[in-house]
Write a structure and sequence with these properties.
431 residues, mainly alpha, two-stranded antiparallel ribbon, 14 helices, globular
């Protein structure tokens, strides 16, 4: 089973690479050199990397764990843009006198290929990271997803017309027999309700799995949640920038490229979590993302706010706009960077990492007073207290190496040359 599954997965990966390469060649052939040519090329390359990364991670997981459905589901987003190998029928402005079979296939694929982006994501959240639902009671979510896909494919395949929405055209389907009214408002209402139930159930199953999971599985889930949240944040920023592109003086193409890169982080995090080759400290990554993300947003608001305020004051005073405004705003940002970073980091530690924040404060206070301690007995008591408050072990012992003096071994040493136990709390097990 494993060699056949591995061979098939890597064959799919090669097919995706062929499709992406074809798309790159086609798009580059129609691009015209201009002021934005290089940015368009970068955006084209980065967007093409998304299906390649999804397919590569899927093939890697299948070759290592062929029974884990997550690897196969990752091929869904990889094949979503596979229509680039077919004629671009959605760009038609009028119907051709004769339609070829490849154009019919392109029309059919363009009608449902978006399902490959949405439904695999829902199922990945349901099955992650083991490839199985949290319990058999959640199997109905998978059946609902498969049923919705089957119904949509049936209607899309045998609808009596194909729609070209950009040009408002309709083309008769040679094998269609279902009236278009079947996919009208009533169907869309049930379909939307099903999508909502599927989305809420998938997220809920992931939350329940996290609450019941062992520590290692929790770390795996954190990776997926972190990268999905990162992509969602970039996507929201992209929507905002495209909506207010005339007011924000930043190239929207740069934001689009960053969003594509954030999307490629999702399969990478899945590979790290499932293969478990090396689980980095995800809490540190999340903490730094929260800190510097909030810091960047705050500084951006301060910068734009100060620029707008000072320019408004200059305009009200009758003076012209000056470059001094930009210089002052930049100096203000530089002066606020460190104080804001420390304040935001402390607030986030208190809110989300309370135990870590308290432990750091205790250790810092102990370190400050350590240089003043000369009484060994008091120092031992404080060391035990600090370790107990910060690490909270079940059992605790402090061992000191005895001072070697001429004569027999001290009576307090259990074995010659071994450390001497100073204090023990709890049962017989020492940590």
């Amino acid at each position: 089973m494993k060699p056949k599954a591995s061979w098939l997965a890597w064959a799919f990966f090669g097919l995706v690479c062929v499709g992406v390469t074809h798309g790159w060649v086609y798009e580059l052939s129609i691009l015209k050199p201009g002021t934005e040519f290089m940015m368009l090329v970068i955006e084209l390359i980065v967007s093409g990397l998304i299906p390649v990364v999804f397919a590569f991670v899927g093939a890697l997981i299948v070759s290592r764990q062929p029974n884990n459905l997550i690897g196969w589901l990752l091929f869904g987003p990889a094949f979503a843009g596979f229509g680039s190998l077919l004629p671009d029928v959605q760009s038609w402005t009028s119907l051709p006198p004769q339609v070829t079979w490849s154009e019919y296939l392109g029309l059919w694929l363009s009608g449902w290929s978006w399902l490959l982006l949405i439904f695999p994501i829902f199922l990945i959240m349901l099955l992650f990271p083991t490839g199985r639902p949290p319990s058999p009671r959640w199997n109905w979510v998978g059946y609902l997803a498969l049923g919705m896909v089957a119904v949509f494919l049936f209607l899309n395949t045998f609808d009596n017309t194909f729609s070209i929405e950009a040009a408002g055209l309709e083309l008769p389907n040679p094998i269609g027999f279902i009236p278009s009214t079947w996919s009208g408002p009533v169907f869309l209402a049930f379909w939307s309700a099903g999508l909502l139930v599927l989305a809420v159930s998938s997220v809920t199953s992931l939350v329940i799995r996290y609450r019941r999971a062992a520590p290692l599985e929790r770390e795996q889930i954190k990776w997926l949640v972190f990268t999905c949240g990162l992509f969602g944040s970039f996507y929201a920023v992209t929507v905002i920038f495209f909506t207010f592109s005339g007011l924000i003086l930043i190239d929207t193409s740069i934001v689009g490229v960053l969003t594509f890169l954030a999307m490629t982080a999702i399969p990478v995090s899945i590979a790290i979590a499932i293969l478990r080759y090396r689980l980095w400290d995800i809490d540190v990554l999340i903490r730094r993302t929260l800190v510097y993300g909030a810091l960047t947003l705050t500084l951006a608001l301060v910068y734009f706010g100060s620029v707008v305020l000072m320019e408004s004051l200059l305009t009200a005073a009758g003076g012209p706009r000056s470059a001094v405004v930009t210089v002052i705003s930049t100096l203000l940002i530089a002066a606020l960077f460190n104080p804001l970073r420390k304040r935001i980091q402390n607030d986030i530690d208190r809110r989300f990492y309370r135990k870590k924040y308290d432990a750091e404060k205790i250790v810092a206070a102990f370190g400050m007073g350590l240089r003043e301690k000369v009484d060994l007995d008091n120092l031992q008591i404080q060391i035990m207290s600090v370790v107990e408050e910060t690490l909270q072990p079940e059992n605790l012992s402090l061992w000191l190496r005895p001072v070697r003096r001429p004569g027999p071994e001290p009576a307090t040493s259990r074995f010659p040359g071994q450390p001497t136990p100073i204090s023990t709390r709890g049962g017989s097990e020492n940590r």
